[in-house]
Specification:
The chain has four helices and 25 strands. With 454 residues, the protein is mostly beta strands. The protein has a 25-stranded mixed β-sheet that branches. Mean pLDDT is 74; it is low at 1-32, 296-333 and 425-451.
C-alpha cells in the first residue's frame, strides 16, 4: 500500500505538470465590447505641434492638427493607429513551440496644406513646375507671388453629433487679412520675402472647413503569419524564418473620412492668365522600434500610390525609389480623381477630389498635379519612421471667390493577437523536478508519519 500510495502521488504530480505548459499572458488580447468614438480638443506635439481636434476610437486617432499663436504650423489631416504587420510562432532548434505573439507597428497617414502660389499660365495647360519656384529653374510659366500657410489658425463652428452610431464632427480653420509672404523677383529668378508695408495687398481670407465622419463596424482581417526559429529563447538570435500563411482575426473596423472645403477669398490676381495652386503633401509611414526593424525583416514589402485613370503606379522600389519630378496632371474622365496609398497587404488610405470648382459663383474646372515624391526614413534613439511621401497641388483658375471640396479617407482594424507562452520546452523539466521532489518529500513525510503512528 505504501508503494501504491507513493506511485499515486507521483502520477498525480506528473499529470499536474502539463497545466503549466500552455500559460497565456494578457498581452494583446482581442478587443471586447464596442468601440465608441470620442472627440477631444487640446494641444499636441504631432507633426510639428500646435492644437488639434481629434476623434479617438480605441487605438485609432483621426483629426486635424493646426498652428496657433504660440506654435505656428501648417494644417494637417492625420490618422494614426496601431496595426499588426505580422504574427509569429517562435520555435527552438528542436521544433518546440516557445511562444506566439503579434508584431504591432504604429501607422501614420497624413496630408498637409503648405502654401499658395500664384503663377501666370502662359501655355494654358494648368500646370506649373514647382522647381521653378524652389530651385530657380527656367520655365514658360511665370511665378507671381505666394502665401506661406505656416500660420496661427483660428478655430470656429465646432459641432458634433452621433447618428446611427456614426460620429460627425464639423469645424472651420481660417486665417484673415494676411500679407503675401513672397513675391517673384524676375531679375534674380527667385521668390523674395515681402516686407510690410506691401503694395501687393492682403489675402482677405483662407478657410478650411472640415466634415469628419467616424464609424465603427464588426470586421475580420487576415494577418501574415511566420514561423521563426530562435536560439536560447532569445528573439534577437534568429536562426531561420518561414512564411506560414494567413490567419484571420475578428474585431472592429474604424472607418474614417473627411470632406474639407477650400475657400479662398480676395486673392489679388495679377492677370486673367493667372492660376492659383495650393501645394499639398501626403505621407504614409510606420513608426517602429529599432529592435523590431531588425528582427522582423520577414518579407521585402513595398508601399505604393496610384493615381489617374490610366492606373499608372508611382511605386517605391529600386535604388532611389523616386517618383518622377516632371509635373503630371491627373484628371479622370469621370471628373473624380483618386490617389490610393497601399502596401503589400492592404489599402491604408485614399485621397479624392472632383474636377469641379466654384469660382465667383460659376462652375469651372480645376486640376490636380503630382510633382514627385519617394521614400523617407527618419531614425530616432529608440525607433524609426519610414514610408513614402507624395507632393502635389490643386490648381484653380483666377477669381475673387474660390470654393472646392476634396476628401481624405482611412481605415483601421481594432483587434488583438493574444501573446501565448509555452513554458514546456525550456522549463518543463525544471517544473517536473520541482513537482517530483515535492511529491517525494510529501511521500517521505507521509511514510515517516505513518511510521511514527506505529
Amino acid at each position: 500500500m505504501r508503494k501504491v500510495g507513493m506511485v499515486a502521488v507521483l502520477v498525480a504530480a506528473f499529470l499536474a505538470t502539463p497545466l503549466f505548459a500552455g500559460m497565456a499572458s494578457a498581452g494583446d488580447g482581442t478587443n471586447s465590447g464596442t468601440i465608441t468614438p470620442v472627440v477631444e480638443q487640446g494641444t499636441t506635439d504631432r507633426l510639428g505641434g500646435g492644437d488639434w481636434v481629434v476623434v479617438h476610437a480605441g487605438n485609432t486617432n483621426f483629426g486635424v492638427v493646426y498652428g496657433t499663436e504660440s506654435n505656428k504650423n501648417k494644417v494637417y489631416i492625420v490618422a494614426d493607429y496601431k496595426r499588426y504587420i505580422a504574427g509569429v510562432d517562435f520555435y527552438d532548434a528542436q521544433g518546440n513551440l516557445l511562444r506566439t505573439k503579434g508584431v504591432p507597428v504604429w501607422n501614420v497617414f497624413a496630408q498637409s496644406f503648405d502654401r499658395l502660389v500664384e503663377f501666370r499660365d502662359a501655355d494654358g495647360n494648368h500646370r506649373f513646375d514647382m522647381r521653378q519656384w524652389d530651385e530657380s529653374g527656367m520655365g514658360g510659366d511665370m511665378p507671381v507671388k505666394g502665401l506661406n500657410l505656416i500660420q496661427a489658425w483660428t478655430l470656429s463652428g465646432l459641432t458634433q453629433e452621433t447618428s446611427n452610431k456614426v460620429l460627425f464632427v464639423n469645424f472651420t480653420l481660417s486665417i484673415s487679412n494676411k500679407t503675401y509672404t513672397w513675391k517673384w523677383n524676375e531679375m534674380l529668378k527667385r521668390p523674395e520675402m515681402v516686407l510690410p508695408p506691401s503694395s501687393l495687398g492682403e489675402v482677405q481670407r483662407v478657410a478650411l472647413t472640415f466634415h469628419i465622419k467616424v464609424g465603427v463596424e464588426d470586421a475580420t482581417a487576415e494577418i501574415p503569419w511566420f514561423n521563426v526559429v530562435i536560439s536560447g529563447g532569445d528573439e534577437r538570435r534568429i536562426q531561420n524564418r518561414s512564411f506560414d500563411g494567413w490567419r484571420e482575426f475578428t474585431g472592429q473596423k474604424v472607418n474614417m473620412s473627411v470632406k474639407y472645403d477650400h475657400s479662398i477669398q480676395g486673392w489679388d490676381f495679377a492677370s486673367n492668365e493667372s492660376n492659383l495652386l495650393l501645394e499639398t503633401h501626403m505621407i504614409y509611414g510606420r513608426v517602429v522600434p529599432r529592435e523590431m526593424v531588425e528582427q522582423y525583416r520577414m518579407r521585402s514589402g513595398s508601399l505604393a500610390c496610384s493615381g489617374d485613370c490610366r492606373q499608372q503606379d508611382a511605386e517605391i522600389g529600386g535604388e532611389s525609389g523616386e517618383i518622377s519630378k516632371v509635373p503630371r496632371t491627373i484628371q479622370a474622365p469621370d471628373r473624380h480623381g483618386t490617389i490610393t496609398f497601399a502596401d503589400d497587404w492592404d489599402r491604408v488610405g485614399r485621397f479624392t477630389w472632383k474636377s469641379d470648382v466654384t469660382v465667383d459663383g460659376q462652375n469651372e474646372d480645376m486640376y490636380f498635379q503630382v510633382y514627385g515624391g519617394g521614400p523617407y526614413l527618419f531614425e530616432y534613439a529608440h525607433a524609426a519612421s519610414f514610408g513614402m511621401s507624395v507632393v502635389g497641388a490643386f490648381v484653380y483658375p483666377a477669381g475673387e471667390s474660390i470654393f472646392h471640396d476634396p476628401g481624405f479617407e482611412a481605415a483601421s482594424y481594432e483587434f488583438g493577437i493574444p501573446t501565448i507562452t509555452n513554458l514546456a520546452p525550456q522549463t518543463v523539466l525544471f517544473l517536473q523536478l520541482v513537482v517530483v521532489l515535492a511529491a517525494i518529500v510529501g511521500a517521505v513525510l507521509l511514510r515517516a508519519r505513518r511510521k511514527g503512528q506505529h
